[in-house]
Amino acid sequence: MSANITTTKTLKLEHGNGVLTIWLNRPEVRNAMSLEMVGELTDVLGSAEADSSVRVVVLRGTGGHFCAGGDISDMAQARMRLAAGEANAVADVNARFGRLCLAYARSTLPIITVLEGSVMGGGFGLACVSDVTIALSNVAFRLPETSLGILPAQIAPFLVERIGYAEAKRLSITGGKVEAAEALQIRLVHEVHADEAALQAALKQVVLRIQSCAPGAIATTKALLARTRFDAPQNLIDDAAALFSKAVLGPEGQEGTSAFMQKRKAAWVPASE
User: Fold this and answer.
1) Residue 204 to residues 44, 99, 191, 197, 233: CA-CA distances in angstroms?
2) In the chain, how many domains are there?
3) What is the domain-level CATH number for residue 176?
4) Which of 59, 99, 105, 109 has the most crowded Cβ, counting Cβ within 10 A?
5) What digits encode the pLDDT tens for the residues 97-142?
6) Three-state DSSP state, 214
């Protein structure tokens, strides 16, 4: 089955075999993330979450780069609005990037980022909030905010969550530059591959592994794991037990255990696997 392909103003979308691939599509500026792109990324994710045919979301960039950070023209316009008396103009622009990252972090769908070339700003944030991150060996993460006299305001919480407080602090105060080998070492990425063919093969395997799992169970598990960051284990016991009971007695639990006993694939597993 060939993917359906549509193009918005800043994105290219491919949908086939349960996978929605979202390409950041401003190659002339290394996919710098404009406010228009932020809005389209948010809207597309919302549509995907409401579409039962979408099992996995893959984020990529066209033109050999993932994302070179925010579009400076948006910030220039925000400064103009500030000068015109709109007191929160700059803060509002910055907050929109944070809300985008939060939407992807909280998504019920599995999110995979495929990275190459430049990864900065909002793109860095999306890499941090994704469930699985694979990269080409030419990937180059940059966290230059403090060297520019500003701060990685919206990326900070997701960076700490991804690589831990100590590494996040080190990168932030040194104007972090992270190449592929170090990114793999500190688990900013999960896999690094030498060429596009190897990358595509790895992506296919990750997608197949995700699709072998029940979509409802994935969504509930992601939500439960998110709670473990803030709630003590003793506060989760009863809620986790209730969620487990609901899953076991629900249609996915019954289908999964029946498939296991009957030595067959569960209904949600693609026939091609």
Assistant:
1) 22, 29, 13, 11, 35
2) 2
3) 3.90.226.10
4) 59
5) 999 999 999 999 999 999 999 999 989 999 999 999 999 999 999 9
6) coil
